[in-house]
Design a protein that fits this description.
TIM Barrel, 3-stranded parallel sheet, about 40% helix, binds zinc ion, Amidohydro-rel, ACMSD, carboxy-lyase activity, lyase
Length: about 300
């Protein structure tokens, strides 16, 4: 593989904010144009890389229907050689959805899973403030439906013991538990979990696969918070593509606990893949992060459902 060239990588575009970056200078001339000629061979995703995206949404993208939105995102995914995409949450964007709303948004995702069964996978959107209704949604969407995990968002913090039955049920079904987490310097939303909350959850459920979404935003703290809990992996999607992020996660957690995801349409495939392709890690570790880990974690539930990887 050629040395990574960030400008060339971003220039191939991904339908998001990362494409087409021009850096202005005082003189008004693009800094890109002012730079001396370098190797401008465009970066291409290596053909043998098998990329599965942990973290995709139907919001942040245009389209009148869920299908139109997914179709547009699949066009970007094809451009970036992303094979499979896990969707959770529908639209419109909502911070504290009531049961009728998260059921309706799960129906939107179920529609696109049915249309593209070979490409799209799904997690059930639930709200920790409604533990009973959320558990019912696990039965409907995972036990009786095609979904493979749950997405817990900012409706209630995950250190709340009311969600223990839901987490236990996910464990029985081999379903993955994805929890959005953030350490915000401006203060979290009332129901917004931190990586410390997911660490609390992990002490009560050491055998259920938990995923610390966004690695806590501030990944230098997030990685430390969950480091001692081997059943907690980090999702690297949806934060800025800072140098050193993936390197630290791989070093401190081991490469098996780091999962690529984009958070598209809130982010671009290009900016989030750049975190992995720009990282100073071995090819073997990169392949784990890009898809092998996710396939390993999903294999038990996909086998139970007779789904092919
Ligand atoms: Zn997200």
């Amino acid at each position: 593989m050629k040395p990574f060239d960030r400008r060339a990588f971003l220039s191939i575009g991904a339908g998001g904010v990362a494409s087409g970056i021009v850096r202005p200078t005082i003189s008004g001339v693009s800094a890109n144009a002012a730079q001396p000629d370098r190797d401008r061979t465009p970066f291409r995703i290596p053909e043998n890389d098998s990329i599965w995206d942990l973290h995709c949404h139907l919001s942040g993208v245009t389209g009148k229907t869920a299908e139109q939105r997914a179709e547009q995102l699949l066009e970007y995914a094809d451009r970036m050689h992303v094979e499979r995409l896990i969707f959770f949450m529908g639209y419109p964007f909502s911070q504290t959805p009531e049961p009728a709303e998260f059921r309706r948004q799960n129906d939107q995702v179920l529609t696109v899973l049915e249309r593209w069964p070979d490409r799209l996978l799904g997690f059930a959107y639930v709200n920790a403030s409604y533990p009973e209704e959320s558990l019912a949604e696990v039965e409907r969407c995972i036990q009786d439906g095609p979904m493979l995990g749950v997405k817990l968002w900012v409706g209630g913090r995950c250190d709340n013991e009311d969600i223990d039955p839901l987490i236990r049920r996910c464990g029985e079904l081999n379903a993955l538990v994805f929890q959005h987490t953030f350490f915000k310097v401006t203060g979290n939303l009332p129901g917004e979990s931190t990586p410390d909350d997911i660490a609390q959850l992990a002490t009560r459920h050491p055998d259920v696969p938990l995923i610390c979404g966004h690695t806590g935003g501030d990944w230098t703290l997030g990685i430390r918070s969950i480091r001692q809990f081997p059943n907690v992996s980090v999702g690297i999607g949806g934060s800025d593509p800072a140098a050193g992020f993936v390197e630290m996660a791989v070093r401190e957690l081991g490469p098996e606990r780091v999962l690529y995801g984009s958070d598209i349409g809130g982010r671009s495939f290009a900016s989030q893949l750049a975190k992995v392709y720009g990282a100073q890690i071995s090819d073997e570790h990169r392949n784990l992060v890009l898809g092998e880990n996710l396939r390993r974690m999903l294999k038990p539930i996909m086998d139970r459902k007779g789904m092919q990887q």
